[in-house]
What does this fold into?
Amino acid sequence: MVENERLRQEMRRCEAELQELRAKPAAPCTGCEHSQESAQLRDKLSQLQLEVAENKGMLSELNLEVQQKTDRLAEVELRLKDCLAEKAQEEERLSRRLRDSHETIASLRAQSPPVKYVIKTVEVESSKTKQALSESQARNQHLQEQVAMQRQVLKEMEQQLQSSHQLTVQLRAQIAMYESELERAHGQMLEEMQSLEEDKNRAIEEAFARAQVEMKAVHENLAGVRTNLLTLQPALRTLTNDYNGLKRQVRGFPLLLQEALRSVKAEIGQAIEEVNSNNQELLRKYRRELQLRKKCHNELVRLKGNIRVIARVRPVTKEDGEGPESTNAVTFDPDDDSIIHLLHKGKPVSFELDKVFSPQASQQDVFQEVQALITSCIDGFNVCIFAYGQTGAGKTYTMEGTTENPGINQRALQLLFSEVQEKASDWEYTITVSAAEIYNEVLRDLLGQEPQEKLEIRLCPDGSGQLYVPGLTEFQVQSVEDINKVFEFGHTNRTTEFTNLNEHSSRSHALLIVTVRGVDCSTGLRTTGKLNLVDLAGSERVGKSGAEGSRLREAQHINKSLSALGDVIAALRSRQGHVPFRNSKLTYLLQDSLSGDSKTLMVVQVSPVEKNTSETLYSLKFAERVRSVELGPGTRRAELGSWSSQEHLEWEPACQTPQPSARAHSAPGSGTTSRPGSIRRKLQPSGKTRPLPV
It folds into this structure.
């Protein structure tokens, strides 16, 4: 303890010296070996202190265990004394009862001879004597029974005495065992205490030796720190000189910066002149590459197939309800975005299409997949994009969208406007829009003055075999605001009703017809392209939709036209000689888009919930059949000439100007079609059409 106290004092003195050294303004020696050794020695000292604390804890545990065993031994001794006292009392009680029994037996033996003598001597006497004799016999019998009982009690007492002797022997054996265990525990405790004492002494000696070594190392570290402090002062003076030199350089930096800026400006001016000299050559190469890119782009779209099929799965909404029928039954392949899996009646069914969009896909993602087809419309190709699926699957949302998140229709026109603006220096384009719907097998104009007027599909009188719709209104659009007005006007005239499956169910097939006419200003090449965007009415089961009356008639016409579309696809797939396009107004109007002269894409919309798996299975099977149809490459519609060189066509005032639908504006040799004897109409690049409604 004296030595430990001395070491503590020495450590305090060293710590005071360290505090003094730290208080000095010199920079600390962070990478010194002595500081690392000092930290290691401190760690070792803390470990030794922890070991001493652990040994003390073990010693206290052993003392506690010895105290517990001592208490148990005292308790056993008390129990033994109690057992001996109880045994003595029991022996005394049994001995008293034994003495009482012996006395009773002796008294009974003393009384028995007179009785026997009376029995033997008195044999015949009077009735009183006989009565007394019977009483004596009864008393004798009673006494004999008492003697037998006393003998039984004596026997039981002897057995109890014997068991008491056995218990005494067992208790003495337990006492001997406890005494031996106590002696053994006492010996173990002494041995453990002795070993702990030796460990403590050894640990103290080792700690003392380590402390001496550490103190010696600390002294050496202190000497090294002093040496480092002496060597740091010249380095500090050097750093001060460097700092003063940098300050002088910073004062002269603005002048250097101005000189550098002047040289850089001269270099940039020279580079700009070089760029301007090469600009014309680059522009010529760019136009050549643009033509090549257009050619490669159209070839790529053609090689992908004329009818491409993509699928889009709508998300689960609150209108689907809750429960097992509203669970998700559609899954996707994480490695292949063209595979979709459907769980139908407990069996998984897989389908492969050109592209599959999950519920997380945005409107922009879907549009990026179809925009390649839309841009080919500017180059003079006919393009048809139609949405197919059950009612409530999201077809109208994909095609039309909302004001904040528009669909394919509005995005397509915006893309056409951007492409037209990029080519405005070389081409002049005119974009016109028409909208129609097929309601209960009746074709109606959504942009006309009288939307309820019935229209008919006719063959072009020029003998080209193409179709047009006389009386279909056509608007020329020049900006996004014009598009919004047309869509708003057409949307108000479209037929939608409430059903059990969809709050705003489309009860008709809607067609948006976009015609793009272009003229190359340098060559006079004229192109005419059509973009047909079709939002088909949803197929539905009458039992599910709850359609009655007029809704039932609408559902029957919708299902009939979609069935006719399936028949057309089946005929095209099997390459039949006759394709039944005329079985429905829908298929008749889509004849140009499905007969091999157009680039066609189908968007199949499916519902992911369990209760609609039958309709989803039918839609995906139909999509696979459509995907297998080969229509052949699309044809570009272009010819040399100019708009001003066309003939003046006159029309009769009594007839409304016939505007083509589907391919009405694509008649060979002209940008429009006409019938003999009609009113005259002059075609100009600006596109004389009806003004937009306000």
Summary: Residues 114-124, 498-504, 642-694 have pLDDT under 50 and may be disordered. The first strand starts at residue 307 and ends at 313.
